[in-house]
Sequence to fold (266 residues):
Amino acid sequence: MQQTRMPGPQQALVLAGGGAKGSYQVGVWQALQEIGWAPDIITGASVGALNGCLFTIGKSKEAEDLWRGLEIHDVLEVPESLKPDELNNFFLDVVRSGGLNVEPLAETIDRLIDEDAVRQSPIRFGLVMTELGTMRRVQCPVEEIPAGQIKDYLLGSSACFPALRPREIDGVKYIDGGWRDNMPLDLAASMGAEELLAVDVNGVGITRPNTTGLPTRIIHSHWNLGPTLDFAPERAARNIALGYFDTMRLFGRMGGTAYGILPDSS
Fold:
């Protein structure tokens, strides 16, 4: 369910990349909905783009259900028999061979994301990718994504090279947007944002200095959100809770620093 925006400055939610740590952003979104904070714009890199696209079309429940049941086999083509302590050596071999196939993730995007709904949403959506050949940042407001290609652009933004294969779009190879701009504040500003709320999950990549000059608040965790490729329901549930409480603290609905403390109601 989308929140109704009252007249005021254009607000943007900016979601950083971070692989499995992205479950934290679901908890942030739950808290924002609860307190009635609604963005006009959502921008994201990598997993932040995937989450942001789901939030844009009102699929927060679907996003939560996805994360709470997500295993690494649902995202990447990893052998079912592989044990957790064998992952490091497996990924070393993957890097040498050119990266993993992400067809399981592509199937999830096909199932959950309706391109027409993204384009018609009252929340404007944008993402960043990195062009592999030049390593330049490519900023993509939804209006500039060709019809029928939102899925490809989402996969390009989240192609964490060299672990994952680049995504080829119209003959050009793209990789994870986080390699050049893991927190796309500039994109949100260029799309008309006047206030920024950023969610940092301490992902790999380049987080550029905030040169927008806009009022900016940042939500981040006091606790370690786990490894980038640790897709596991138990960790996702923990991160969702952390994101919720951290957001409630930022907006003054709870106290505390490392823990959420409810205000004294006596």
